[in-house]
Amino acid sequence: MLKISTKKKKVRMNKEQRSTARAVRIDLDIVLKVHDLVKTYTVGNSTITALNKVNLTIKKGEFIAIVGPSGAGKTTLINCLGALDFPDSGKIIYNVDGKGMGLDVTQMTNKQHKKMRLRKIGLIFQFYNLFPILTAYENVELPMVIDKKDSKVRKERVKSLLKRIGLEERMEHLPTQMSGGEQQRVTIARALVNDPLIILADEPTGELDTETTTNIMKIFLDLKKAGESILMVTHNVRIAEVADRIITLTDGEFTGEKTGGKSIEEIYNY
Amino acid sequence: MRKAKKSKQQGLVFQELKDYELDPDAMIQTFDLTKIYNITEGIEIRALNGVSIDIKKGEFVSVMGPSGSGKTTLLNMIGALDNPTSGAVYINRTNIAHMDDKQRTNLRLKEIGFIFQFYNLVPVLSAYENVELPMIFAARTKQERERNANKFLDLVGLSDKKDHLPSELSGGEQQRVAIARALCNEPSILIADEPTGELDTKKGMEIVKLLRELNLELDQTILMVSHDPMVGALAERILKMRDGKIIETVDTKN
Fold first, then answer.
1. Cβ atoms A84, B122 nearer than 8 A
2. Check: complex ipTM more than 0.90
3. Is domain B2-251 given the CATH code 3.30.1330.30 in the classification?
4. A113 to chain B: closest CA residue
5. Distant-in-sequence, close-in-space partners of B30: CB < 8 Å, separation ≥ 6
6. Inter-chain residue contact B101 with A172, CB threshold 8 Å
7. Which in A1, A15, A136, A213 has the greatest CB count within 10 A?
C-alpha cells in the first residue's frame, strides 16, 4: 500500500520513529537486498510515486546497470540506497560486515546513516561534486579525513588509489586544471577510499564524450574484476551492456531485465 | 629538482621582466593577465587578453559580461585555482606565482572564500559538516570549528537546518551553506562565481543582499561574477568584460 506523505518537504524520521536497526541474517554472497521500496513526493495537491515496490538483490562482485528515461526514478533509487534520501516504506538491507550481518538502512539513526555513507557506500555523481579548492589528492583523502583515519594510512591508501586510476602524476592538480574524465576518475578514487561494500554511481558518464565514457567503463570493469560490487544508473542503454545485468526502470517500477556482460569492443563494433 | 619539475608542469614558471607598480591600498591587483588555451594544435583561445585590475580592501566589485568573455577564467586566476599564461596576480601585495604549493593551498583555504554557481557541496555531508570542511583542512581546533560553523550557519539563517544533507535543501539554502563555508576561515576576500546563476530572481537578490551585508559588516573584499544586470548593479563598481578584456568600468556609487 502506498503511504502518502502529507508534507511537502522530504521528512527524515525522528529517533522514535527510526529505532536502531536490528541485525538480520543475509546470505553471505549477497551485498544488498532491496525489498518493496516505495518513495513518493507530494508537490502541491498531487502525489508522485518515484519508486513503486522495487525489489532487487545484488550479489558480491556483481555489476548491475539500471536504465530508464529521465524521471523514471533512477536518482531517487540511488539516493535511497545511498542513505541520502528516505523511502516511505520497504527495506534496504546491506551485508554490513560481509559475513552475513544484514542491517536495514531505513531503520538506522542519523549517526548510523553517516557511518554508512562514509564507510560502507561509495557514491559517484554525474557532476563529480569535487571540492574545487582542494587538489585531486585532498579530494580523494576527504572521506578518510572526516572519518579521522590516521595520516599514514590515508597517505598510503590515497596514493595507491590515484595510481590505480592512472592519476598519480596529477595528484597536486585542482579540479579546474583537469578534464571532465579526469575529475570523474578522482571521484571514483574518492568513492573507493574507505573500501566500501558497494559503488553506487548516478549517471557517471552523463557529462562525458564517447571516448571518455569508454575509459570510465573500463575502470568499472577492472573494479568488477577486482571483486567490487557496482550499481550504476544511466540513460545510456548502449554502455549499460557492459554490466552483468541490465534492469529497466519505468515510472518507478522495474519493467524488464536482461543479461549483459558485453565487452566495450562488442558494443562499439571495434 | 622535483619542485622545479612540478612548477613547470603547472605553468608556474614566470620570468618577471618588469617591476609592477603596486597600489598600497589594493587587496587584489592583476597586471596584464593573459590566459591562452590550446584547444588543438594550431588553434588557441585567448580567454584573458591583458587584464589589469585594482580592487581596494573592502570593495564590492562585480564582473559582468557575456558567456565566454573570460569572467570565470579571471576569477580562477585571482583565486589561484588556475595559472595565467602571462602577467601577474597580487593578493595583499604578494605575487601568487611566487608562492609554493603549500602557500597557495593556504591562500585558497584561509585568505579567500569561494562561492560557486553549482554550490559544490559534498553530497554525503550535512550542512554543518560542509561548513566545517575547510576548517578541518586548515587544521583549526575542534572548538574553533564548532564556534565558526555555528556562527556562520546562524549568520546565513540556517541554524535549524544544520543537520540536513544538501539533497534535503533548496537551491537557495544550498547556496547559503556554500556562503557559510566560504566564510568559515574568516577570509579577507570572497570570490563568487555566478552565485545566483541557479536561483530564481527573488532568491538570487536575497543572496546578493546577504553578500552586500557581509561586505559592510565584516569589511570583506568581494569580487563577484554575474551576467544578471540587476545582481551586478548591487556592487560598488562594475567591470564589464568582452573577449577577454575589461572594456568598461562603471562606478555605481555616483
1. no
2. no
3. no
4. B124
5. B51, B52, B53, B74, B77, B78, B87, B88, B89, B90
6. yes
7. A136
Return d(Cα B28, Cα B44) in angstroms, integer: 28
Q: Domains of chain B: which residue ranges?
A: 2-251
Q: What angle separates helix B171-183 from helix B142-155, to the nearest 10 degrees?
A: 140
Structure confidence at residue A62 as a pLDDT band (50, 70, 90):
very high
Q: What are phi and psi of B94, to 5 degrees?
A: -120, 130
What digits encode the pLDDT tens for the residues A195-217? 999 999 999 999 899 999 999 99
Q: Do B56 and B92 form a contact (C-beta atoms < 8 A)?
A: no
How many CB atoms within 10 Å of residue B210?
17
Cell numbers that stand for B231 in this block? 545582481
Query: Which whole-number Å values give the CA distances from A112 to A31, A83, A115, A120, A237, in the listed order?
Result: 18, 10, 5, 11, 35
Q: Cβ–Cβ of B108/A172 closer than 8 Å?
A: no
Distances (CA, A) of B221 to B189, B191, B249: 5, 9, 17
**Phi and psi at residue A142, in whole multiples of 5°?**
-45, -50
Q: From CA B140, how far away is CA B138, in angstroms rounded? A: 6
What are the chain A neighbours of B116 within 8 Å (beta carbons)? Answer: 132
A117, with CB counted inside 10 A (0-12, 13-18, 19+), is: buried
User: Within 10 Å of residue B240's Cβ, how many Cβ atoms?
Assistant: 17
- Alpha carbons A141 and A147: distance in angstroms, whole number: 10
User: Which of B39, B114, B124 is best to mutate for the A interface (most A CBs within 10 A)?
Assistant: B124
φ, ψ dihedrals at B39, nearest 5°: -75, -60
Q: Decide if B156 contacts B207 (C-beta within 8 A).
A: no
The burial class, CB within 10 Å (0-12 / 13-18 / 19+), for B40 is exposed
By C-alpha distance, which of B35, B38, B125, B137 is closest to B84? Answer: B35
In this structure, the strands spanning A63-67 and A229-234 are: parallel
Residues of B in Cβ contact (< 8 Å) with A123: 123-124
Q: Are A130 and A175 in contact (CB under 8 A)?
A: yes
Which residues, 6+ apart, have CB-to-CB distance to A40 below 8 Å? A2, A3, A4, A5, A47, A48, A49, A50, A88
Whether residue A12 is predicted with pLDDT greater than 80 in this model: the reply is no
**Residue B69 one-letter amino acid:** S
Q: What is the reported pTM?
A: 0.86
